[in-house]
Specification:
There is one protein chain. By secondary structure, this protein is an alpha/beta fold. It has a single domain, classed as 3-Layer(aba) Sandwich (Rossmann fold), CATH 3.40.50.150. A seven-stranded mixed β-sheet has the order 3-2-1-4-5-7-6, with helices on both faces.
């Protein structure tokens, strides 16, 4: 992999080998902790960066079983993989698309938008938060989970390791970004995997930032 690799090229490659399923296995313990905090909803759910489709499948079968679930992935290979693995769900629609470029005027406003390990790939993180806010109905929620942030030192080598352009924000940056995007009741948590005996969230933990679009 060279420095010219973009996120879509990297994820296309990962979808073709066992790294896609490896990411699913690594992310699920943290995604599940977030999902456990989200109540049932009969509205529309949007997932940015569906990967293999593991999270959107869960939502379509649980909290949004009476709603509709839409998923995007910038990688055509990942989107194709997710479509294949979600084909039995009538309430799931997945497409290959760039979230920042996608025109959502054909869809209703969403009641919840979720992403795992996506926002730091955006050239402009604030633009991503602003767009998410514009797509939510009043009272809708945005949940952003990620491992790459300034306080999480073990991820600081990712730009060199993966050779993909990513942007480093702190916990305060994400909180302030949510507020600047118009969200209220902004909260943050750091999820850790107890099975791996990780006891210090300041050294490792998936950062979860969530907020509500005012009524």
């Amino acid at each position: 992999m060279t420095s010219s690799n973009s996120a879509d090229q990297a994820f296309d490659s990962w979808a073709k080998d066992d790294r896609a399923d490896g990411m699913e296995n690594e992310h699920w313990p943290f995604v599940k902790q977030a999902f456990d905090l989200i109540p049932n909803n009969s509205g529309d759910y949007l997932e940015i960066g569906v990967g293999t489709g593991y999270a959107i499948r869960y939502m379509a079968n649980h909290q949004f079983s009476r709603g509709r679930c839409f998923g995007l992935d910038i990688s055509s290979e990942m989107a194709g993989l997710a479509k294949q693995r979600c084909q039995e769900f009538k309430n799931i629609s997945i497409e290959h698309a760039d979230f920042l470029a996608r025109d959502f005027s054909d869809l209703q406003k969403f009641s919840l938008i979720f992403s795992m390990e996506v926002f730091y790939y955006f050239p402009d993180i604030q633009k991503g938060l602003d767009k998410a806010s514009s797509l939510l109905q009043p009272g809708g929620q945005l949940w952003v989970l990620l491992d790459y942030y300034k306080e999480n030192k073990i991820t600081h080598d990712w730009p060199e390791k993966y050779q993909i352009p990513i942007r480093s924000w702190s916990m305060a940056d994400y909180r302030n970004g949510f507020i600047d995007a118009g969200f209220s009741k902004v909260e943050q948590r750091q999820f850790i995997d107890a099975q791996n005996n990780i006891s210090n969230p300041s050294d490792f933990g998936t950062l979860c930032t969530f907020g509500i679009k005012p009524e």
